[in-house]
Protein 1
Amino acid sequence: MSFPKAFIFDLDGVLVDTAVFHYQAWRRLANDKLGFDISHEFNETLKGISRMDSLDRILALQDVQFSDAEKTDLATLKNEWYLELVQQMTPADLLPGVVLFLEKTRAAGIKIGLGSVSKNAKLILERVEILHWFDAIIDGTKISRSKPDPEVFLKGAQELGFDNADCVVFEDAVAGIEAAKRAQMRTVGIGQPSVLTHADLVLPGFENLKPADLYKLNSNANI
Ligand code: BG6
Ligand code: MG
């Protein structure tokens, strides 16, 4: 297995803890507008899933029917509540070790990409002041399919100019690991091994991590 030439990072839950904000905003919508709650376990299944697809999954919980216009209103409201939380973010909200790892990655000559289905990705990268680190940004404005579809990572490799096999993906979502595997990329799960069971390696975060630690990373058989 060759040395990786590019690292592609998911955003929410990998570089910043916005996965918590998404959950808070969806939960508020479910409680205030739909009349039911959503569990932490169910929320895991929303990670890496686009805004409208997430809403569809939530509505399917209780088999409630809404028109397309009503669904757009609900998704817009959730996004407004989500952005209220994002507006309070500062560089202090970056997850531990992220900036140092980006610095070491660039110093090692490895390109840096973003692979997120969020339409708010650039705004968040600006708020936490790491936008300038990225050689390519693929976000929800450039793709049409949520993870686990590999589109976001395939476009990332393409924009960076490398083969898929030369890219390593960092992901906190089960759907994101699956998307990267489908793109034939090596995967580092950020989170718990019990959740990210198909990742090639699972780490709690970036603290004390060096790019060279990942040179030996081998891709498991496809899931
Ligand atoms: C992903 C999150 O990164 O982005 C999902 O894991 C979220 O929870 C999706 O639904 C879309 O985000 P946004 O910001 O476009 O609503
Ligand atoms: Mg994520």
Protein 2
Amino acid sequence: MLIYSTMNIPKKLRQLNFRVKKRLGQNFLQEEKVLYEILSQAKVTPEDVILEIGAGLGILTEPLADAAGLVVALELDPSLYTYLTERFNNRENLRILHQDILKYDMRDLPEKGVKVIANLPYYISTPILMHLLQSIRRFPLILIMVQKEVAERIAAEPGTKKYGSLSIAVQYYTEAAVVCRVPKTAFYPVPEVDSAILRLTLREAPPVKVSDPERFFRLVQAAFAQRRKTVRNSLLGAGSFSPEQLDAAFAASGILPRRRAETLSIEEFAKLSRYLF
Ligand code: SAM
């Protein structure tokens, strides 16, 4: 393996006369061990196409481009985009795009086999994830650094406080695992929160059968909208079902209506949705 080092970020930023933009979630990775952890998890091969979101100063971009067949690296900040294009101007297998990920059309990528590897801008990590889920068949692996709290919510199991509609939306399509926790000091400037590396591996098929996933996710969201209430009362409060419809669906699915949403597995939500719709 080639040796990579994270740069002296404060020095580099001074050289570039660059003022960090907090509003763009700019916290650059400065801990080498973490870089190697990401690379060892990503297992990039020359057959891989990689989508990197928020390339920053190119700390991840360089090793990814050394190992992959093609890297598409997006960066919204114009100064960082200019820096990256100058730094990597002779790389044939690297496309750097001055682009907002939330406006990026995933159809520009191959239909299959694209690995997403990124240290995400945290202010939009959930919208980015939702955007990726819309095109999930393209992405066999999503390996992302996110806020620790978000990673734990996504990978949470039923019966835990962190389990919620985000866990179900992501786990419906992928197997989610927190690879490791990363202390805030691994970044410059040091953010206010700790981070974690999250690995999402595409499932061949969803773990449950639902006729209309969008409607299913709306039901799950309504069930979690008031976490302190019972699942029946949350669904009643959402206004789409009558008390009679709900009582019949709970009775038929064998799920106790006094349970709280966080105790229901994805299979139980699917069962309930089959009787409700
Ligand atoms: N990859 C670099 C690293 O690991 O050091 C930078 C990571 S930093 C947490 C997030 C990067 O995403 C920043 O460079 C920021 O400018 C960029 N960014 C912020 N919003 C973005 C958006 N909507 N689309 C693309 N890039 C964005």
